[in-house]
Amino acid sequence: MKLSRKRILLFTAILLFLIGLTFMAVYLKSVADYKRAVKETTFSNLDISNVPDGVYIGEYDVDFVYAKVEVTVQNGVITNIDILKHKNGRGSRAEVVVDRIVEEQKIEVDAVSGATNSSTVIKKAVENALTGEK
Predict the structure, then answer these.
(1) What distance in Å separates the CA atoms of residue 118 and residue 37, rounded to the nearest whole number?
(2) pTM higher than 0.90 for the full model?
(3) Nearest Cα to Cα of residue 126 among 75, 90, 78
């Protein structure tokens, strides 16, 4: 039985559609997992004044957003936070959250409006640096 050119094209179109549908489903699941990971991110009640002097590296990754930071503590005070890497969609505005952390001397500062997820990831990276969490 010989397949006609029309049938081959139809079969190819259906196959490409199904492949595209599969990729879309995988992408949508990844987005849902990312949103859930950000939503489930919690913070401890870290007393910064108890953190020994030093320079600490921390990171936090929820797939679509990732941050790696370097936090300097002197005399129980955060004196500096450098963002070493920040993978984000449109969340680069969130990088000012480190200034708020230094100013207020706490991790749970207000997120940057419009960049809430990136703010959360950066804050968690700072906390992970100071607690040694991965």
Answers:
(1) 12
(2) no
(3) 78
Do 69 and 97 contact (CB within 8 A), yes or no? Answer: no
Domain ranges in the chain are 48-131
Cα(19)–Cα(109) distance, integer angstroms: 44
On the question of pLDDT at 120 being above 80, the answer is yes
At 1 the pLDDT is 58
| CA count, 13 A, side-chain hemisphere, 74 | 4
- The verdict on domain 48-131 having CATH code 3.40.50.12780 is no
User: What number of residues does the chain have?
Assistant: 134
Chain-centre distance of CA 65, in angstroms? 3
Q: Is 115 exposed, middle or buried (0-12, 13-18, 19+ CB in 10 A)?
A: buried
φ, ψ (nearest 5 deg) of residue 62 = -125, 35
pLDDT tens-digit map of 75-114:
999 999 999 999 987 778 999 999 999 999 999 999 999 8
Give the pairing of strands 77-87 and 66-74: antiparallel
